[in-house]
Amino acid sequence: MIRKLFSVVTGKGKALIATATLAFTAAGLLGAYLMYLVIDMLNNIHTYKDGRELTGLWIALFGIVLLKTLMAVVADMSKHFAGFDVVLTVRKSIINRLKQFSLGFYSKERLGKISTIIHKDVDNLEGVVGHFFSIMFSDILIALLLGIWLFMKSPWMGLAMVSLLPLAVLMLGMGFRKNLKLQEKTNDDLADMVSLFVEYTKGIPLMKAFSENAAFETKLRSSIERFGVSARRQSKTVAGYVGRFSFFFELSYAVMIIVGALMLHQGSLNFETLLIFIIFSVEFYKPFRKIEKYWLDYLQVKDSYRRVEGVLEAPTVPAAVFPRKTSAFDITYEKVDFSYETDEFALKNINFKLPQGSLTALVGPSGSGKTTITNLLLRFWDIGRGSIQVGGVDIRDMDYDELLSNISIVMQNVVLFADSIYENIRLGNRNATREQVIEAAKKAQIHDFIAGLPEGYDTRVGENGVGLSGGQKQRISIARAFLKNAPIVVLDEITSNVDPVNETKIQKAVSALAKGRTVLVIAHHLRTIQTADQILVFDQGSLVEQGAHSLLLEKGGLYAQLWKAQEVAKGWKIA
């Protein structure tokens, strides 16, 4: 397990841990040597003839204190830098990994759990790998060297010093095995509780809107109670075996003092040696006193590493072995089958082609497979059978980042980060200049609104664009797409939840965005796609109709039924 833990440490981090270990060891040994010199000085104080001899000793003692302090500073800095190295390495690895997962990963893992892993579990790794290892290794080294030295001083006293340690460690080991499963259960309950708290916090606006939120609160309280029960059960177990360990451990120290007193009385041991054992055995015992803490820290980090490893080793979207590029941007779905890890097909035998530069609309009832079509193009999921090609190249044979760089996405639910409007638009192209960002905003019909804000483009928006209307967020998203300037555009019905004023501006922006690009749009308002080059009609995972608006109306099929239903809905009134 220690080897696995060190796998998350870079070469630089390992060097820092080694430096911290050696510096802590040096500081500990210097402290022991300082104490030895003091004992020797006090024992032989009568032999010093004048102050000059003592002056040399004072200088030596001061030098040792100074060097010990320097070693402690070096050790402390090194262990903290090692911890920072672990945090940076692991979080960067997780963030890079999260981008490579299919949506299947996120449908299985709650956002709160992922958040717990990134924050709490990575912090645990930092605390143990960065800080704990160097201290533990140095404690063991110091104890080993002091133990050898003390045994050389008096083998009998050395044996007395360790006489009951095996029994104390045995008591601790028996408790450890019992505690192992309890620790895992406690950590899992804690992770579940934190995840629910995150979800509860994010859902507070919804909770306020509905007075009936007792179900989720009951679930949260149950999670808190489960964690409390697990924590109390574990605490009782720990208290029991730690108590037994402490008894035999302290008894071992008492045995050493009794043996030393008897040997002193018999004349086989001098007082200086007895004093050395009484004082230095404390340093020798230090790692044993910390065994319980070492073990609990190990269990905690072992569990944290298990969850971090679960993310780092979870299957990602398969990468192309020999990536191919394309210079054309027509899109072909050929005999595509797909299911969401069940026996039921979400899409079945889908065949169609989007000519380069054309606008294709996907329509159909909810759950018919429209969103799945776009998700497969973006490789948020991988198909089960058939192929999806861009410019004649299977998207599975393309570099994933290269594929996504050729596609702009404007979704119905826009994601904005808690940053400035300028930075949110610049996500479309990190190399864009301020002038290019402003030009993209103008094309997206959002510049005038931004310019009217007190801080203009530097205005910060809250998480997910709190404070902006749906239409304003949509136009910021469209500005991103203009800035990215990708040859393929995917639109999820972006005018379904906006007011007429915003809808007009969005339609104007989208019309400009679509020019010269291959556009795939999920449409709910059929009146917005009457001029589409082709309309694909889906029902229960199958492509049931295909053609232009007028042709599909003449056929009188599902599209005509959907059109008629929307026309009837336009005349609906509340009362």
From TrEMBL:
Annotated GO CC locations: plasma membrane
Subcellular location: Cell membrane
GO molecular function, one term: ATP hydrolysis activity
Transmembrane region(s): 15-36, 56-75, 128-150, 156-176, 241-263
Domain ABC transmembrane type-1 intervals: 15-300
Assigned keywords, A-Z: ATP-binding, Membrane, Nucleotide-binding, Transmembrane, Transmembrane helix, Transport
Membrane topology note: Multi-pass membrane protein
Domain of life: Bacteria
Location of the ABC transporter domain: 331-565
InterPro entries xrefs: AAA+_ATPase, ABC1_TM_dom, ABC1_TM_sf, ABC_transporter-like_ATP-bd, ABC_transporter-like_CS, P-loop_NTPase, Type_1_exporter
PANTHER family assigned: ATP-BINDING CASSETTE SUB-FAMILY B MEMBER 10, MITOCHONDRIAL, ATP-DEPENDENT PERMEASE MDL1, MITOCHONDRIAL
Protein name stated in the entry: ABC-type multidrug transport system, ATPase and permease component
